[in-house]
Each structure stands twice: as C-alpha cells, then as structure tokens.
Amino acid sequence: MAKRIFVVEDNALNLRLFCDLLAAHGHDTCAVRDGREAFGKALEYRPDLIITDIQLPHVSGIDLIRQFRQEPVLALIPIMAVTAYAGPGDEERIRAAGANIYVSKPISVVKFMAVVNELFALAGHVDVGDPATGLG
Question: Which pTM does this prediction carry?
Fold first, then answer.
C-alpha cells in the first residue's frame, strides 16, 4: 500500500534519488529543498513518514524535527534524519530532538529502503512477517 512520504533535502541529486527510490517502491512523495517551507508543507501533506536532512541552509534539521514533534498533527509521524556531516554527539542530539532513526550519508539504496520499511513496521504500517519487507 502506498504511503505518503515527506522529504526535506537541499541537495537536488539526493532529493531526486530519495524521491525516485520511494516512488519505485510505490510510495507517494512530497519534497522541499528549503527548510523554511518544510513545516507548512508537512502540515498540508499529512505524511506517513518524514525524511529530513540535518544540514540545511536557513534552518537546522534538528530544529525542524523539534517543530514537527511539537505539532499535534505531526507529533507521532516517524522521522528519519539523514546527514553527511556527522560529528561527535550528533546522533544523540538528533534522537533527543525526536528523530526515530539517524542515517549517515552516503546511503546505500538497500539500507535506505530497509530503514523506511523498518519505520513503517514500528509504526504499525507494515506486516513485519511479510518477506517483502525484509523484517520477517
């Protein structure tokens, strides 16, 4: 069943890769490159999953995650944080902000989809016994 996935990524190549990969697996996507637009678009789109870069111009991905978690409409939606610039303590800060999972770039295609499926399974959207999910 297609899920609605909201992607926040300022790098055009990464954004296209994420959206194309998700679409190839039957998901609908809505994407923004400017973090300043992310909160309003996410509220309009009502996603089943949010994927956000951490290193964004104008606004921090960590700040976005906090905003998403403070909004009742978005508070329970799983969030995958991705970044190419991981420093000491970053994973702890990102998880403390409210991300369910943290993934470092570059991301392999197989790992990316495994993490997406894992988040849906944790949220009750996927049957973990289904061999197609890779979680059973």
Answer: 0.87
